[in-house]
Amino acid sequence: MRRLRFLPAAGLLAASLATQAAPPSHFGDVLGNGLLCRDQTSNRYYFDYLSQYFGRPYKREGGAYWFRTNDAILWGYPVLEVMISDESFPYSFVGAVTDTTPEELEKAILRQDGQAYAKIDTSRYPVRESKPGSRIVYFNTRSKIYCAKFKQLPPALR
């Protein structure tokens, strides 16, 4: 694990860019399984993971931290951004924007991971959902895939 020490502003920028150099070899296993709802959905875990390999989130919007994931690939398609729920959102979620259509992403996931999706509405841009709960939706001309789960109650409230 690489740790950054206090650096002048120019050094911090260079370190941040170096952190974003290349996605880790286990990106597909870690993030892919999370997006397919095959793993626990801990926003803290994914926040720390993405911060370590891609640097700090570039924005916080809509109940989520947004990370740019330069050169990351899942199921054969570029992953442009990853979103992790923040503490204000009622669910814990991990999501990603991929540079392909939902139809193509669905086919690639079925081919590579064997996970099938069903259309759960009859709209022009239907939501697709897998049995474990992963969803694929339209995000303009691209697709967004995500896994959302209820947050657990804190121990004092159980």
Structure description:
The chain has 158 residues and is α+β, with helices and mostly antiparallel strands. Helices cover 28% and strands 31% of the residues. Strands 1-2-3-4-8-7-6-5 form an 8-stranded antiparallel β-sheet. A hairpin with a 2-residue loop joins strand 7 (135-139) and strand 8 (142-150). The N and C termini lie far apart (35 Å). The model is unreliable at 1-19 (pLDDT under 50).
Q: What's the total count of β strands?
A: 8
End-to-end distance = 35 Å
Strand order of the largest sheet: 1-2-3-4-8-7-6-5
Percent in helix: 25-40%
List the helices and strands and how they pair.
Blueprint (H helix, E strand, L loop, with lengths): L8 H11 L7 H9 L7 H12 L4 E3 L2 E11 L2 E9 L5 E8 L3 H12 L4 E2 L8 E2 L5 E5 L2 E9 L8
Antiparallel strand pairs: 1-2, 2-3, 3-4, 4-8, 5-6, 6-7, 7-8
Please give a handful of descriptors for the protein shown.
28% helix; single chain; alpha+beta; 4 helices; 8 strands; 158 residues
Short structural summary:
With 158 residues, the protein is an alpha+beta fold.
